[in-house]
Amino acid sequence: MFSNNPALYGLTVIIIGVGGCLGYFFLSNLFLDKVLFPASGPNAGRNINRANMIRPWLFLFPALFALVLYLAYPVFETLRLSLTDRDQGGAFVGLANYRQMMDEPKFWEAVQNNMLWLIVVPAISTAFGLLVAQLTDRIRWGNLAKSLIFMPMAISFVGASVIFKLIYDTRPEDQNQIGILNAIWLKLDGGIGSILMLQVLPSILLVGFVVIVASVAWSFVRGIIAKGEDKSVWLLPLRLLVAGGALWLIWVSISSLLGLWIGGLPYGEAQTWLTIPLWNNFFLMVVLIWIQTGFAMVILSAALRGIPEETVEAAIIDGANPFQIFFKIKVPQIMGTIVVVWTTITLTVLKVFDIVFAMTNGQWETQVLANYMYDKLFRANDWGIGSASAIVIMLLVTPILVWNVYNARKEMK
Amino acid sequence: MASIAGKKSALTWAVHISVALLVLLWLFPTIGLFVSSFRTADQISSSGWWAALFPAEQNEVYRAADPDDNRVADGDMFVVKGNIFEGDPRDIRSWGVSSRNVSAYQPGDTAEMKDGESVTLQADGSYVWRGNDKQLSGRGQRIFITATVPPEFTLGNYTTILFSGSGQDNMAKAFFNTLTVTIPATIIPIVVAAFAAYALAWMEFPGRALLIAAVVGFLVVPLQLALIPLLRLHLGIGIGKGYLGVWLAHTAFGMPLAVYLLRNYMVGLPRDIIENAKVDGATDFQIFTRIILPLSFPALASFAIFQFLWTWNDLLVAKVFLIDATGSTTVMTNQIVELLGTRGGNWEILATAAFVSIAVPLAVFFAMQRYLVRGLLAGSVK
Q1: ipTM of the complex
Q2: Are residues A93 and A194 in the same domain?
Q3: Which stretches are transmembrane (chain A) (predicted)?
């Protein structure tokens, strides 16, 4: 009966689920108070204490059970599976899965792309979010504007992928372009305006990016040489990692900068945007940035409102201009929130699957880890490598996990 | 003083304009999809959706009435009179009688053809076709017009997607499947988490701080790790792929956020109320159901919206735990991805399908935005 009528099934499950939960809590409390440790008779006082020791666990049990079975156990089971081979009946194979994965170019492509995503999406989303939060704070229809920019949060990654596929759509030469990006592209003709927009402006942005990356990397690397810095052992790998990542980023930026000027742009030809290596990654990232900016904006806007008025007023009296007030007074005060927003978006990026799956499915060098894992798991049916790549994602998340738990504990004390 | 005031208003204008531009930029993609979902396949493939908002020039072909039935003698010639539009008038820009030159004449002109044959077309579409016996026979004369067509929209795509479409084009079943997944997966975790949150907020027991820290940790554990072990577990204990599995999975995956949000909210409730109730002899169960739950409504609503949006929009969990080989339990996100593969160029189907799946979360979003914002502010780990 249930298999034919999912709605009825769903309703029954709601009633059983909710009723069962309430019933469980009610009856187990009753059992505890009336049968196991009744608050009467010779041992009433001792019984009440015992009942109160057990009661929290009655309240916690269903949630804990779900958390342990569905989140804690899988972490260890995935770790175990990543060390076994399904074809050999689950025999222990040590790190063979990891070694095999490391030999695959597709894996390294996924790692590289994930690194790009990890840097670009949180940075741009947070920057846009901060910009919109600051701008809308000053105008009367700011709430409406915020609400409209926040709206993509409600749209599924799949829905957003369809929306942006329409934007990136390509038609054959002899037809009208119905994708807005190609329609604009065909309007550009290589004149001075096009050069300014497509070569000079991106070059300035890229050079700015390189400078920022280099200065961040330098501030990390300097710690190794300089005196008086914290030279604890566990910081050294972090510093080296940052330096390595920065060098790679600078290399990517400079090579794309050269490509921009040397290659020459194919004006007048409709482009299939999602098949241009490297750039197509950015076209996919735009989707996530479009969704996540609203999130960043909401949180940062609340933080901006929380800034004490006096600090801003004092700066105005001292003659600071609006830009100085924003960058020197406001931003430093909400740095903590910016970090929170940044890490939250980072987590979303690490798990990004739907967008890549729906738009390119990892073709044309757009693979990311989550999609790579899905590929291994359900297409190649290789649970060993699938688990190994899941563990890689877990490792990338772990620093944020530790940081969050550390902060939460500090806050509770 | 005046210069300062002037400067300030210039800056304010700049702010207004840049916010307006940003909002437009953010809305533009969604509007494109929305407009496209109301256009026919021909309209979509002939012009970009932005052109649909304005009147467009369009070439059309009509035929004069069948001369054998309609011709009337006029001296030694014959005449066919009529109106090409038959109740659907257009604004004629120019017209012609040959496919080689479709805009040779203006409305009101007379087209002279071979051997005295002629056609006159008025702006309202009425025509006079004149010729001899041989010329006015067979099929009606073709008339090409270039007309300005006002923006035209249709609900046909929605009819196809929701009712009449067959196979993959029909989203009705997927829509109900999505609802079936979403509603229990939203309600059940709330109940389970609320009890746990109460225990973590208001009951003293050893290990409480550790549990709270663990919940914060679970908040960020990637879903990807849970897929293989849990699928094996579900297959092993006989749940297999189906609704029960996906409900359990969504319930558990939503649990950390639910417990975290609710505990943070409940901790902030006034201690007096709870202690007074205890003094009056209320049990923990009574305190929870009579006092805590009603007071925590805003937090419950925040989480409900999150969980609803997340389960409605989810693709991965449904693909792994729900959709089996028969595909009878497919959800909308999955069907759209399949449509992207099979009907990649049919934007009227794709846009409408996507909009159907987006519409419900958007409605929820605009109706309950307040709670969503509150939840976001409470839920991002500080």
Answers
A1: 0.81
A2: no
A3: 6-27, 57-76, 115-136, 148-168, 195-221, 233-262, 282-304, 334-359, 383-406
